[in-house]
Amino acid sequence: MRALIQRVTEAAVRVGGDTIGRTGPGLMILVCAMHGDSEREAEALAAKIARLRIFPDDAGKMNRALRDTGGSALVVSQFTLAADTSRGNRPGFSAAAPPAEGDRLYQHFAAHLASLGIPTQTGRFAADMTVTLTNDGPVTIWLDTAAR
């Protein structure tokens, strides 16, 4: 699985003008299930993100994890994280999991993150969403379970 995480002061996702998910201080997580991924990758990625020390401590050093801050997460599916731009100028997305599998793993990822004590809200899989956020830092980190 792949994720692009951003430390935020706030973030929201809207569908058709209605806000369906939001977070205050915490993380905006864009996530994509890749072909061949399973619950194992979803759980490992959620656990890594919950433990990732990217929030400042009292000395201003990135020493605290999301769990330590009491922050929350907004998780949005984004199959474009699977983009292959190696050939031509039009990205290919065949490395992304098929839609039904992608949705299932996206939901599993969000549920597992919540089970780790992170208040979690989500977007809507395969919907045309509008995402707004205020990046804090800015801190933006790319994670890929295949890179392990």
Work out the radius of gyration.
15 Å
Structural class: alpha/beta
Broad shape: globular
Overall pLDDT metric = 97
Q: Helical stretch count?
A: 3
Largest sheet: 6 strands, mixed
> Which regions have little confidence, pLDDT < 50, spanning 5+ residues?
none
Let me know the number of strands: 8
Question: What's the arrangement of secondary structure elements?
Answer:
Layout: E1 2-15, E2 18-23, E3 26-32, H1 39-51, E4 53-56, E5 62-65, H2 66-69, E6 72-77, H3 99-115, E7 120-122, E8 129-144
Parallel strand pairs: 3-6, 6-7
Antiparallel strand pairs: 1-2, 1-3, 1-8, 4-5
Helix pairs in contact: 1-3
Compose a concise summary of this entry.
The protein is α/β, with parallel strands linked by helices. The chain contains three helices and eight strands; from the N terminus they run E-E-E-H-E-E-H-E-H-E-E.
What do these coordinates show?
It is built from three helices and eight strands, in the order βββαββαβαββ. It has helices at residues 39-51, 66-69, 99-115; strands spanning 2-15, 18-23, 26-32, 53-56, 62-65, 72-77, 120-122, 129-144. The chain starts with a strand and ends with a strand. It is globular and about 45 Å long. The strands form two sheets. Strands 1, 2, 3, 6, 7 and 8 form a six-stranded mixed β-sheet that branches. The chain has a two-stranded antiparallel ribbon with strand order 4-5. It has one domain (2-131): 3-Layer(bba) Sandwich (D-tyrosyl-trna(Tyr) Deacylase, Chain: A). α1 (39-51) packs parallel to α3 (99-115). It has 148 residues and is an alpha/beta fold. The mean pLDDT is 97.
